[in-house]
Amino acid sequence: RAKEAGRGTYRFFASEMNEKILGRRKLEAELWQGLERREFTLDFQPRYDTRSMRVRRAEALLRWRHPTRGLVSPSEFIPLAEETGLIVPIGEWVMRAACAAAARWPEIGVSVNVSAVQMRDDQLAAVVADALLSSGLEPSRLEIEITESVLIEDADRARAVMLELKALGVRLAMDDFGTGYSSLGYLRSFPFDAIKIDRRFVADLGPRGEARAIVQAILGLGRALGLTVTAEGVETPEQLMLLRVDSCDEVQGFYLARPLSEPDLLGLLTGGQAPELRSASGGARG
Ligand code: C2E
Ligand code: MG
Ligand code: MG
Ligand code: MG
């Protein structure tokens, strides 16, 4: 009986696995199609200078408008795009679209996420150079966000690619800082201009407690190494207030602004401050 049950279980798992594989293959095919059919778009989330509370740059965030599934979140398709290598052509589209958009904006810069797989592509710097050239965007207005995992997997290669990118004149930021394993000293051996404090530390931020101590330590490190420090995931006025008190350079999060379509971003830039922002900066001052 046990044997029978075991076989049944096996059959159950096998069919479930088939379904999973089929589902993934379908999604993979749809990703290709999505690229061809221009189903990808970018939203832009404003990042504010903490002192002036003005928008300094915007982070490009990839969105997939699937014809039947609707809006698919990057956390659902980016891992598969990375495994299949599709992130390389998708990432190239993102880079070109983000540079072209930023070239239309007044002054503010753009920040583009680049994953570990893209960092291993030896065409990356050439693609970035071409995106800058064809859009006419000043290189200093482009920032590239890289996660810590890139540095751990193949540090020498990552450093070489980063130096190629720096030679183009773009800024480099470490994304989700604090979630990986790289030590603070290790950070110094890479040509970063900025670090982004992961939102898990920001989420736990209170006047007392560990999260604030961690944020203050990262800010101290950033200052010592001459890096711009951004806090991401700012959701409450209290978090904003503490980050201002501790002199964090830049803030980004739902409390200030959600990721926006390009027209909405431009509306926010030209129409002055967003309503949320007015109350946010007013609240922090008062
Ligand atoms: P990330 O680079 O750390 O981007 C920040 C994520 O946090 C975004 O999620 C953003 O919408 C979200 N976020 C912003 N403010 C808040 C907040 O106040 N609270 C909370 N809970 N979340 C906030 P999104 O757009 O779903 O992107 C998820 C991740 O997907 C990104 O994390 C990035 O790693 C990746 N990604 C997005 N676009 C691209 C892309 O074009 N290329 C690559 N390679 N990766 C991308
Ligand atoms: Mg990012
Ligand atoms: Mg991040
Ligand atoms: Mg992330």
From TrEMBL:
Stretches assigned to the EAL domain: 24-273
Keywords: Membrane, Transmembrane, Transmembrane helix
Superkingdom, taxonomy of origin: Bacteria
Key word Transcription present: no
Protein name: Diguanylate cyclase (GGDEF)-like protein
Naturally occurring in which organism (per UniProt): Methylopila capsulata
Lineage: Bacteria, Pseudomonadati, Pseudomonadota, Alphaproteobacteria, Hyphomicrobiales
Section covered of the full-length record: 453 to 738 of 738
